[in-house]
Amino acid sequence: MLPPPTPADEPRRLQALRSLCLLDTPAHERFDRIVRAASHLFRVPIALVSLIDENRQWFKARQGLDATETPRDVSFCGHAILSPTTFVVPDALKDPRFHDNPLVLGAPFVRFYAGHPLRAPDGSRVGTLCLIDHQPRDLSDADRAALADLAGWAEVELSALHEREARIGLEQQERFFQVSMDMLCIAAMDGTFLRLSQAWSRTLGFSEAELYSTSLVDLALEEDRAATSGHLARAREGASVLQFEHRARCRDGSWRWLQWNAVPDLEEGLLYAVARDVTQARLLEDERQRVERMKNEFISTVSHELRTPLTSIRGSLGLLCGGIAGPLDAEVARMVGIAHKNSERLLRLINDILDLEKMESGRMDLNLAPTDVAPLLSQVLQAHQGYADEYGVRLEVVVDLPDARAHARVDEDRFIQVLANLLSNAIKFSPQGERVTLSLTREAGALRVGVQDHGPGIPEAFQGRVFQKFAQADASDTRKRPGTGLGLSIAHGLVARMGGTLRFTTAPGAGTRFSFDLPECEPGSGAA
């Protein structure tokens, strides 16, 4: 068996075949009547309209055959499309190309074959009208002419269907250009408009005639024309996609921000593009940024104005609590103590707000340096021992390292701040008598710092908001365990600035573990 050779124009032929939009479509009576007529006229059991793609022959119409397709490499039609005239095999068993073909030795037991090529509108041979018999035979000249005429009929139907599909496609495209809210256009590479949707007139106020007499560059504000011309130059140089924004003039003298997405076609010399009016979005974004700046400036100003007197108040109350003015009446001492604690809480809130504002505005500078991490854990634990005693919670440090020292590039003060936030949270949410563990281990070349409590765990509904600003599990819990809801958000940002990612694992009744990894470095090294 000899598989059919590949035609010299195969890429063009396949493109023409696909442009017909017929492959794998339902049966059409216009083709079915042709194969019925062919089977009756030539008195053969099988007649087919066959289309040949890369790997198969697919039957658009068939008479006397159940199969819908067969492989191309065993097809007779694959040979037939190589010739502009009728291809005839009088006896397949005597033909060296087909004598051992599975379609000859098995069903449908082809002995006689005659196929005339079918051409697409561009002249490419995309398939055949073919006749098959189980007995050897031949075709006379008159039979060949008749088969060619029937094939011509099939080609007329191919073209008619193709023209109908093309017409429908154009109608759909026209409708799409009419109703699209986006501004669709086809332009030449210099920006001259060749086709515009109605949205252009609706958005900019110009008539179609006025728009077609201008160009993409001419529509741009004078300040944006150089940049717009530069984008078109990139298209002519071979850029596959253009994405840019510019301001376009309106007929009433105003202007709109347009966001462009364009695909150049160098072969056609055309630019297919969609422009979207994003003026409102730009104005909203500008306003959002203005409000954000005002908010940050307000927070920073108020926080600084509050912190200076509050620091003085806290210091004075602390001195009173310490007995600088002598023994206080019990009730007075109690009230001064409450005021001192509340002033400390308010000062922590102000400091947290300032830290958050610095991080969001990119003004927080960290002094990263190789630091022995283990001593910092002990330092934080000692600083929180009194707080833990208030809640009846035991604290421990576990350092599990083969070497005595482990260095990472951190800002020492900010590292302690992160641990303080994590440790104070763990203490607050631990039942009395339970243990909170501060740990340091080495994992795959990184130092892992962890804080484990044995509290109730983080509610599932709250887990996605743990690191958000002012996030707290619920109001009743907040009253029992006071906090600003900023600590974890700040800790998350600080860990990220030091090269790690703060994460947590939690389970109901089993507690919560917060941890982060930091790249380990050599003492005194300038990089991690």
Automatic annotation (TrEMBL):
Domain Histidine kinase, first and last residues per copy: 301-522
Segments traversing the membrane: none
InterPro entries: GAF, GAF-like_dom_sf, HATPase_C_sf, HATPase_dom, His_kinase_dom, HisK_dim/P_dom, HisK_dim/P_sf, PAC
Matching Pfam families: GAF, HATPase_c, HisKA, PAS_4
UniProt keyword Amino-acid biosynthesis, yes or no: no
Source species, domain of life: Bacteria
Keyword annotations: Kinase, Membrane, Phosphoprotein, Transferase, Two-component regulatory system
Entry EC no(s): 2.7.13.3
GO molecular function: phosphorelay sensor kinase activity
SMART domains reported for this sequence: GAF, HATPase_c, HisKA, PAC, PAS
Keyword Ribonucleoprotein (UniProt): no
Catalytic activity: ATP + protein L-histidine = ADP + protein N-phospho-L-histidine
NCBIfam families linked: sensory_box (TIGR00229)
Name the record gives this protein: histidine kinase
